[in-house]
Amino acid sequence: MANERTPLLRSYITGTSEAPENDPSLKFSRVARILRLILVAALLALVTAFIVVIAIHPSGDNPTTTDEKICTSAGCVLAAATLIKSLSPRYEEIDPCNDFHSFVCEGWDASHEMRQDQSSVGTLQLISDENQLILKHILESPAPEQVSLFWTATSPDQEIFGKLHDTYSACMNETLLRSIGSKPLLELLYQLEEKYPVNKTSSNKDSSLTHALEYLMSIGVSGPITLDVGADDKDPDSNVITLGLPWSFGLPSKQYYKRNEIVTLYKATIGATLEALLNEAHDTKLAIFRDIDTPHILSKDLVDRIVSLESRMAVAAPDIEDLQDITKTYNPRTLDEAESYNQQISIKAIIKSFAGNHKPTKVIVVSPEYLQTLSTILAPEKRATIQAYLAWKIVQSYGGSVEDDAVEPLRRFNNIIRGQDPEVKSERWKKCLGVVDSDIPWILSRFFIERAFSKESKVLGDRIIYDIKDQFINKLKASEWMTEDVQKLAIDKVGLIRQKIGYPTSSPNITDVEDLQKFYKDIHVSADTFFENRVSAIKNGVKQEWEQVEKPVDKDVWGMSASTVNAYYNPAGNEIVFPAGIMQAPVFYDPSIPKYLSYGAFGAVAGHELSHAFDSSGRNYDQHGNYTDWWDGSTIEAFKEKAECFVRQYGNYSIDTKDGPLSVNGRLTLGENIADAGGLTAAFQSWRSRDKENADLILPGLQNFTKEQTFFLAYGVTWCGWSREERAIQLIYGDPHSPPQFRISGTTSNSREFREAFNCPQKKPTCELW
């Protein structure tokens, strides 16, 4: 998305959600409810048959005693069926101590297929699929439905629903968009050409690279640098400007510029796309793209120059694992110092353009070395090459927002880079749903909450997180490698972690329709101006961000919409955030089912996010979110020694590719692997404490698994799934999370409780921090 402006968060899940093919246009009528009851009854009969006919015998297990009561509620039946279906058909032949991933996921793999429009599929994707069906129904309804929480039949509610509906309808009108074609995209390119012409004259003396970058930033397009506003890591109550790098220079990561077959395909994509746009442009426009001898043909060496420039910038950038390290990226400088690093771009002028009269006293420079090298790269470069590079950035950002054959090569290339068939397109409604969730997420969140999130669900989430906090404090107290003073500070930090559950009630308050009206008042939407709607929303997002310069940090802001299937820890805010989207069935989030399921699935998510407060990055922030040295030397050394174990362990894992094994980056994934291990053990101890107070029932068909083992089955099933090869490679290069199979087998091998539950010969975890 062109306006993807993500804060520095520790995400639990990466990638975008992909929706299902089936069309849920049926409303929740009496017939639909009857069909659901019939389905539940059928599943109940099925699982009852399992109980009578089969007995499941996990390796090394002590079966549950027969006098324990079996839960036969609809929720338990559905949960049991999910687990039974996920288990490997040959589970009796698999040692869970050595290969828990196969043990718990082979059945899942056999019963799920990847759609052609997907690059990956997994259990958590099923939640996203269900959420998207709910959102589709909302967006395709003629009027909002009064449900339960805070909808009111007032004109403000009708107004914001109208804005929601128009945003979606404008995107869905493919006939109109086809008739418009590439014109809106070309207009952006024309504006760039005017602001940064190849031939600089006295009449356009302000046409500098700085001026061009101001324009790109105003429409949410990333060039060779980024400027963002957010919390100061060493003063988290204050906002500061950060001067950084783009998330991508063109290809997904710097490693791709060394893959000749990808680079060749990328060049062909750029050439075909730009030449097609050139043929649709006015004869007097985009002059620099044109070949001297054949004006309607793309300049012969232009594409090579664009990719060469991108490649040199990518090589100059720090490795991604270094960009994850706050100790390397927090470089406060004065505005004059920031200005001095690059003679080709005026940082002062850009900041003045967006911040007005605000003159920041400091700027956080992510990589001074990159800025200096960038200056030497740009200095001898022709304006024509730089203009073409910037134009390509606009096309990459906004090409998906037009319906025209000219941008088809780009769409096909993006498919290939994810391992999909180049000709595949997802259903239009899925794309348009993503646009709505990107451009006006909080209006969509209001109606999603009405339909899909109960007060009981929020209570369950709060309770699980409070329990995990208590258990994490116990773990800190038992951590002999931490000195007593550090332990006390760490315990204080846990107590001060803010937990946000479900949806925001401030900045904006989605329960207050007038607050939503005010929040989106500057976004202008029409049902027949899709491209303009997008630009309006993106510009508004940029404006709102820069309005925070020199203002206190608004700690009520959320970084994810309510329907998002994800969660995050924000170190500067010392907060953990769980959107309602991830707190959904069918992955064992249900107040009515045994607690070991909810704690094994969602509890491990909550524990994971809390553990980020003490991982390789989060440990640098104190209880108030300040980046500071609050650990003493001996504790730091002990941590580093234990962390190296995780680096070695995950560095020995690899995925199979057509070119041979590709190893996991143990340093890039270190923080996430530590969080996985800490989260799982904290969730287990939290459940066990609850179970002592009020023992859970066992599930039908799984009575020969102990409750402890079923806890770990719930955890494992949460991570079942796989990716296409190209997508898996892309994630290895750039994702701080390990591949799902290693989040299962690697994490459980680091769990003492898992080894005890399955009676593994080796009880000692491979690596252990908490």
UniProtKB/TrEMBL annotation:
Cross-referenced SUPFAM superfamilies: Metalloproteases ('zincins'), catalytic domain (SSF55486)
GO biological process terms held by the UniProt record: protein processing
Peptidase M13 C-terminal domain boundaries: 566-765
Keywords: Hydrolase, Membrane, Metal-binding, Metalloprotease, Protease, Transmembrane, Transmembrane helix, Zinc
Gene Ontology molecular functions: metal ion binding; metalloendopeptidase activity
Keyword Transit peptide attached: no
Coiled-coil region(s): none
Transmembrane spans: 34-56
Pfam families per UniProt: Peptidase_M13, Peptidase_M13_N
Sequence ranges assigned to domain Peptidase M13 N-terminal in this UniProt record: 96-504
GO cellular component, one term: plasma membrane
PROSITE patterns: NEPRILYSIN
Cofactor(s) for this UniProt protein: Zn(2+)
InterPro entries registered for this protein in UniProt: MetalloPept_cat_dom_sf (IPR024079), Peptidase_M13 (IPR000718), Peptidase_M13_C (IPR018497), Peptidase_M13_dom_2 (IPR042089), Peptidase_M13_N (IPR008753)
PANTHER family on file: FI17812P1-RELATED, ZINC METALLOPROTEASE FAMILY M13 NEPRILYSIN-RELATED
Similarity remark: Belongs to the peptidase M13 family.
Protein name: Endothelin-converting enzyme 1
Organism: Gomphillus americanus
